[in-house]
Amino acid sequence: MTQEEEEVVLLDYWPSPFGTMARIALVEKGVNYIHKFEDLSKKSPLLLEMNPVHHKIPVLVHKGKSICESNIIIQYIDEIWKNNFPLLPSEPYQRAKARFLVDFINKKVHGSSIKVWMGQSEEQEDGKKELVEWSKFLEEELGDKLYFGGDVFGFVDIALVPFYNWFIVFKTFANFNTIEIECPKLVMWGERCLKRDSVSKSLPTSDQVYQAYLEFKKDEVWKDKSPLMPSDPYKRAQARFWADFIDKKIYENGKRIWTTKGEDQEAAKKEFIELLKLLEGELGDKPYFNGENFGFVDLALIPFYSWFPTFEKFGNFNIEKECPKFVAWANKCIHKDSVSKSLAEPNKVYEYVLKFKQQLGLP
Ligand SMILES: N[C@@H](CCC(=O)N[C@@H](CS)C(=O)NCC(=O)O)C(=O)O
Predict the structure, then answer these.
(1) Domain boundary among 166, 191, 209
(2) I want to staple 89 with a disulfide (CB 3.0 to 4.6 A). Which of 94, 165, 265, 282 is the partner?
(3) Which residue's CA lies nearest to atom 9 of ligand 1?
(4) Which GO CC terms are listed, alphabetically (predicted)?
């Protein structure tokens, strides 16, 4: 067999949940592969040839032959590299059930998530309600197990975790945190999965997901002439850097304020104020992070402002006293219609945190 025939190639698109599933399965099995990214607005001749029916990614090309559809790809990977970590249960009923759940996720969870991404207000609300319903069902299926198949990560986990990643992004874009309140076990499962190397290496960042979202919604975004991203490439890179910084630092650090006590909490508060001061430095004397107009960094940061009263109550400190410029910026943002309509209410955040602490057994 020639080297080319032995090669494993994945035709992919970074933000795709279906592409992510194939990536996770390959990493779990330790398979070396060549990653080829597609521009979905200008599909390559290779993609058209390898998936002549749907013209969609992901496509796995193995020994010169193509395998299409994410769930079929995962099962193929499991069957070919079968001596490593099994992804599907060996017992036929459990295997059938896992296939049913993956089909459910691909149809229902994906369908409702698309409504949240793309839908206007009413449709988006429907999508959110449906996602809560599907999540409750999935939480029941999970029961007290670590993963859907029991003690080990497998097929159903691979299919669901890219959507769990979307739920996290929906918190910012669609004011969606009901799952955290209603399905704590599912959230714990999601966080457990995110810690796996195969998952963290394969999932797109929230910036990549957001870019894909903008691409999908291009017409709508440009129609009202309010681009969220700066047009200058360097400024765009800077905006992405700060949004990533916010994503990584602000949530984790804020969480430390309400989950710790004593010295740890003091350290978390100090670090939190330092983070805000760094952001104040980046803001400078501009009204918004990108200058005159509300944009990407403002949008990534402002949802956390709803959490500030909770941080202040648990941490017994006053953020405005330490970072007045930051609070002035936040007050400007919350008077914008798009923000005031979308932000979570601070008292609901506080109630949620209280409930979550109780569930975690924290004092
Ligand atoms: N059922 C397919 C769905 C794959 C899919 O929807 N791929 C999208 C990217 S997320 C795609 O290639 N879209 C291009 C198109 O629809 O033209 C699977 O599970 O693999």
Answers:
(1) 209
(2) 94
(3) 16
(4) cytoplasm
| Of the listed ranges 74-83, 124-133, 227-236, 241-250, the one predicted with least confidence | 227-236
Q: For residue 16, which atom of ligand 1 is closest to its CA? A: 10
Q: How far apart, in whole angstroms, are the C-alpha atoms of residue 107 and residue 40? A: 21
Instruction: Report residues whose beta carbon is within 6 angstroms of any ligand 1 atom.
Output: 13, 16, 18, 40, 55-58, 69-70, 106
327/347 Cα distance (integer angstroms) = 18
With respect to residue 226, please indicate whether it lies within any of the assigned structural domains: no
- Kindly state whether residue 23 falls inside one of the protein's structural domains: yes
For 268, other C-beta atoms within 10 Å of its C-beta total 22
Please calculate the CA angle 9-13-15 and round it to the nearest 5 degrees: 135
- CA-atom Rg of the chain in angstroms: 22
CA–CA separation, 294 vs 297, rounded Å? 8
Segment 189-211 mean pLDDT = 89
Domain extent at residue 98: 92-209
First to last CA, the chain: 63
CATH number assigned to the domain comprising residue 310: 1.20.1050.10
Q: Of 192, 209, 226, which residue constitutes the final position of a domain?
A: 209
Same domain, yes or no: 64 and 178: no
Question: CA-to-CA distance for 110 and 130, rounded, in angstroms?
Answer: 11
DSSP 285-320: T-SBTTBSS--HHHHHHGGGGGGHHHHHHHHT--HH
> 140 and 67, same structural domain?
no
Burial of 214 (0-12, 13-18, 19+ CB in 10 A): middle
In this prediction, residue 362 carries a pLDDT of 74
Q: Which of 24, 39, 57, 102 to mutate to test the pocket of ligand 1 (most atoms within 8 A of CB)?
A: 57
Report the separation in Å between the CA atom of 196 and the middle of ligand 1, taken as the mean of its atom positions. Answer: 25
CA of 100 to the centre of ligand 1 (A): 19
Residue 243 and residue 185 in one domain = no
Same domain, 333 and 259: yes
Measured by CA distance, the residue closest to atom 15 of ligand 1 is: 56
Q: Are residues 124 and 46 in the same domain?
A: no
- Residue whose CA lies nearest to ligand 1 atom number 1: 69
